């Protein structure tokens, strides 16, 4: 998962960064930093996103940036 995928998922669910961070149970600043490329998407963050939005690998492929 990369920064574009994170942003695409967030936009697909019509969420701002703050609401997305709350849904994923992480900080708003982490999401903001990931989306601008200053932090990478860790396996832990990817797992949290997949769990929060019930996404599987097929779903991620369609949302990839």
UniProtKB/TrEMBL annotation:
Gene3D superfamilies: lambda repressor-like DNA-binding domains (1.10.260.40). One of its GO terms (molecular function) is DNA binding. SUPFAM superfamilies: lambda repressor-like DNA-binding domains. Residues 6-60 form the HTH cro/C1-type domain. It comes from the Bacteria. This is HTH cro/C1-type domain-containing protein. It comes from Priestia megaterium (strain DSM 319 / IMG 1521) (Bacillus megaterium).
């Amino acid at each position: 998962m990369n920064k574009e995928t994170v942003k695409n998922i967030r936009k697909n669910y019509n969420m701002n960064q703050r609401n997305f961070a709350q849904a994923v149970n992480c900080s708003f600043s982490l999401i903001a930093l990931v989306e601008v490329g200053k932090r990478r998407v860790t396996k832990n963050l990817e797992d949290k996103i997949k769990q929060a939005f019930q996404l599987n690998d097929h779903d991620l492929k369609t949302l990839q940036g």
